[in-house]
Structure formats: structure tokens, C-alpha cells
Write a structure and sequence with these properties.
The chain is about 30% helix and about 25% strand. The chain is of the alpha/beta class.
């Protein structure tokens, strides 16, 4: 059975490679605009399932399709991807000395049976007090413009933090491998 990652993210692909399974990567082009009044947890779940369904739609042979989405949440607000240097600096300035919750939605769809497994995996990042200079140096060095909350915890972003909390460290990078392996096992793919 084919394994498809419904995401263009190089970070998610890198994580999935850790499992040693052959997979294909198919970007899922969906509208990622939050709905009015939508709770951040419901938002990431909706997008994870939508990404998996979008990648599954054109397939005519058996496949398992993975969808995932992540949001960084501060004071109940989704921070999103900065896209610009200035917005990344502003996000990190706001996060300084505070806790950001990272919510990662995960979905696995079997396109033959129609079975959909989904879950939301939370993680918390506690930021140190950051100087303006250290924030700007970090953004210049790491260029985290395409990351939720403007931080790459798998890279230099780890120096911005006091501590992390969560059940799955890979959830912070965007693809919760602990939960994914359980979902794959439910579909008959046992690792290692």
C-alpha cells in the first residue's frame, strides 16, 4: 500500500523519513483561513483532515494518506507563519518570557476503506526573556519565516526556550511520529 504525505513541508518529510518507510509527498492545496470563531484545536484538526482528503482525492489505488497541520497559539490567538522578517521579530518579541502552545492536528486516511483516524497533539514551549538583539540575530540566522510561531525547535530556536512540555517532541516540528506510528499500526503497518 502506498504511503502519501499530503504536505509540501520539508520539515514533515524529514520527520517521516525517520520511520524508514517509502513514501510520496503530495502538496495539498487547501484554504487555510481560520473560520470565524473557530477554536485553534478545531482549526488544526479540520486542516489535517482536509489536507489528507485533498491528497487522497486523485488516487485510484490503495493508499494511506497523512495530513498534518500546526498552529502556534498565544493568548488564544493563532500566530501563523510570519512570512516576513519584521513579523517574525514581532512574534518572538510577543513570545518573550511567555508560553506558546503548539497544537498539531494529525490525520491518516485509508482511501480504500474510507477510515479516518485523527488526533490533536499539544505541546508547550516556555520562552526565555529575549532581548531585541537576540531576537533579530536568531531570525537573521535561522530564517524561520515558514514556521508556526517563528521558531524552529529542531534548530537554533531551541536556545530561545527555557523548557518544553509535551508527550511527543516531534509534534513541535509538525508531524507527531508517536501518534502516527499507532495510527499506522491500526492499518497493519507495524514498526520497526
Amino acid at each position: 500500500m502506498r504511503l502519501i504525505l499530503g504536505s509540501a513541508s520539508p520539515y514533515r518529510a524529514e520527520l517521516l523519513r525517520r520511520l524508514g518507510l517509502p513514501f510520496e509527498q503530495t502538496p495539498s492545496r487547501i484554504d487555510e483561513t481560520p473560520r470565524s470563531g473557530e477554536d485553534p484545536a478545531a482549526y488544526v484538526m479540520r486542516l489535517a483532515i482536509a489536507k489528507a482528503k485533498a491528497a487522497a482525492a486523485p488516487l485510484d489505488e490503495p493508499a494511506l494518506i497523512i495530513g498534518s497541520d500546526q498552529a502556534a497559539v498565544l493568548d488564544g490567538e493563532i500566530l501563523g507563519k510570519a512570512q516576513t522578517f519584521e513579523r517574525a521579530v514581532a512574534q518572538l518579541r510577543r513570545a518573550s518570557g511567555r508560553r506558546i502552545e503548539f497544537l498539531t492536528g494529525l490525520a491518516l486516511i485509508n482511501n480504500i476503506t474510507g477510515a479516518v483516524q485523527s488526533d490533536m497533539i499539544p505541546a508547550r514551549a516556555y520562552f526565555r526573556r529575549l532581548s531585541e538583539t537576540s531576537i533579530k540575530r536568531y531570525v537573521e540566522c535561522e530564517r524561520p519565516l515558514d514556521c508556526a510561531g517563528s521558531i524552529k525547535v529542531e534548530g537554533l530556536g531551541i536556545v530561545l526556550l527555557q523548557r518544553l512540555e509535551g508527550d511527543d517532541p516531534t509534534a513541535l516540528i509538525g508531524l507527531p511520529l508517536i501518534r502516527l506510528t499507532a495510527m499506522l499500526a491500526a492499518e497493519g503497518i507495524h514498526l520497526p
